[in-house]
Design goal:
The structure holds 2 protein chains of 2 kinds. By secondary structure, chain A is mainly alpha-helical. Chain A is globular. In chain A, a hairpin with a 2-residue loop joins strand 1 and strand 2. In chain A, strands 1-2 form a two-stranded antiparallel ribbon. In chain A, 51% of the residues are buried. The chains are: A mainly alpha, B mainly alpha.
Chain lengths: 650, 106
Amino acid sequence: MLDLVWLIPALPLAGFLCILLFGRKMGDPRSGYFATAMVGASFLVTVGVFLDLMSKTAEERTHVRTLFQWIPVGSLKVDLAFLADPLSITMCLFVTGIGTLIHLYAVGYMHGDSRFSKFFLYLNLFAFSMLILVLGSNMLVTFLGWEGVGTCSYFLIAFWHEKDSAATAGKKAFITNRVGDWGFMMAMFFAFWAVGSLDYSVINQAAETVGLPGGLGQTTATAIALFSFIGACGKSAQLPLYLWLPDAMEGPTPVSALIHAATMVTAGVYLMVRINPVLSVSSGYAGWIIAGVGAATALFAATVAVAQNDIKKVLAYSTVSQLGYMFLAVGSGAYVAAIFHMVTHAFFKALLFLGSGSVIHGMHHEQDMRKMGALRVLMPITAGTFIIGWLAIAGVPPFAGFWSKDEILLFAYDKSPILYVVGLATALLTAYYMTRQVIMVFFGKARWRDAHEEHGAHGDLHASDTTPHESPVTMVAPLVVLAGLSIVGGLLQLPSWGWIPHGLQHRLEAWLEPVVEFGEHPLSRSAYDLSGILALVAIACAVAGIAAAVMVYAKHRVKAVEPEILADAWGYDRAVSNFMGGPGRQAFDGVAWVDAHVVDGAVNGTGELVRGTAGKVRKLQTGNVRTYAAAIGAGVVLLLVWFVVVRGIL
Amino acid sequence: MIAAIATPTTTWYLLLGAVLFSIGVIGVMVRRNPLILFMCVELMLNAVNLTFIALARRLGDIGGQSTVLFVMVVAAAEVVVGLGIVVAILRRKPNATTDDMAELKG
């Protein structure tokens, strides 16, 4: 089964090609089901590979399947090879698993869209690229997937490109990601320069022998780690490059769930975990920068989410915030916790996004939470599953989010109490804004009724058509599955508390052992002893956040605080726009001028010089045979003079 | 003395070759008829051949003689091609001189 690892990305690729050729013929909804089946088949293969790996010992759990040599240039040899190890297969499992559910959901969500088959074309291409990204055994193959998911993200954000805002958001995402890609490429150059290979195994091997001959230098390791982190910042929407993600909500909701919550945005975290030996041997400040950026992003995005009124914008900022958590974990050396949170986050955030999509679908494409309310009666399944997702993200035990967030906070505490406090504040805000969202959407007064009556007064007689309704079964079935996963997701990695059966503790850590054993930060004894208390503090925070939101939005005891500056994301987006539109644009115009006049001038000048000289010199060719003969004769005479008189021969 | 004059030495042949070559060079430069031009080129080739033979005999080296054979063969081939071109040109432009054929000037 291990040798079939290439099938995992090949199946979505086949789906992409088939829909490319026959998509129009298959139409709505057959092309959707076909795409779903392809990703589903890929999931089954992944499960097979997973079971195969499970049956092996920890040392044997790394398998490289080389398809062919891709780029052989001098000393640079790059294979198109897939790496099946616990980390990549974990990623594949949730990418294909959640991908299948979201594909299925999209069949219902996109029903009736004029470009239905095209949507699934992109979705399958995305799944293919994402799997290439996680399965690549060297940085270049990963980069191939990295760019592939970026391109698909662009296509899908701008899927409804008739809308100006969607087209702009697509471009914004693409361009912002390019900044991060620069970092990724620099990391690749450094890695190749230092160890002469782009293979993860070679790079990590060099990192593990740091300081020895043939090993990586600490400065180089730091450079690779930090440049990779810049790449990760772009892809995983961290400060200062996060700003494309909230705008990406212009895309259809299944896209938001699949790409901008569950899978693509976690690629940065994956990359950092993949090169964890390099990270662990780099200078101490690298970890501080990563943890610091993660914590700052987490808190920043959480404060912004508090004041958003668009149902998807709240979730977008929440995603940025949760990704910040993952980087906090990476910076603290808690790679297992980062992956754990990535997986649980994929469960509950996909659930929340799909739930919000279901609400938007039921509300006839209304996204403003101020026009919702009391939807739990009309959409019981959506409401029930959304509430499970809410409890999971808020950190209420025993739901999945509690366990993973708790583990990250534990490691953050071990790194620095300041990071811990920031993480805790974020947890509190998360509970607060998610409760706010749930109350605004599913509880309270049915504000949509007012909106529709107003509408009715304008002559709309089909009032019954505009009543929110529950979504079709293809949409609610994935919700139910994801809700189940959000409840039990914590079982992956339970902490080592006395009352938990020993066999259930740290399952994920044992599984990921071969990948992270070198880099994983060992938890200090004091933090370990405090873990129970820290968990109680985290629960208290979650409850406090929920209670505060209930007081404000359900009981109306306290007036809601939603300052303009938070709704405006601290003005950061606007500041960047102004800067790039003003001085930035002028600088780029200057660079363009230099390019047009100096660089092009040098090139064109050389051409002009050659042409001008040639124009003059060609007059020598008179076409007159006798002139040529005379020239040859004169030449012979001159040569003779040279040899006889100057050189003295004869 | 007379016997000395009557017995040609190598120098005589070399001088003859030089004279013939010079006639050929001047002919190429001053004449305009393509056929005459051709004959002048042949004259130059054969002047060189003569020099080869003279020196080969003087030095007792067979190399010079064999080179001459090569030159003759190549000259024959060249004449075939060259005459073909000359005939083609004269067909298009009767009485054309070399100066009339300057279409390839820069």
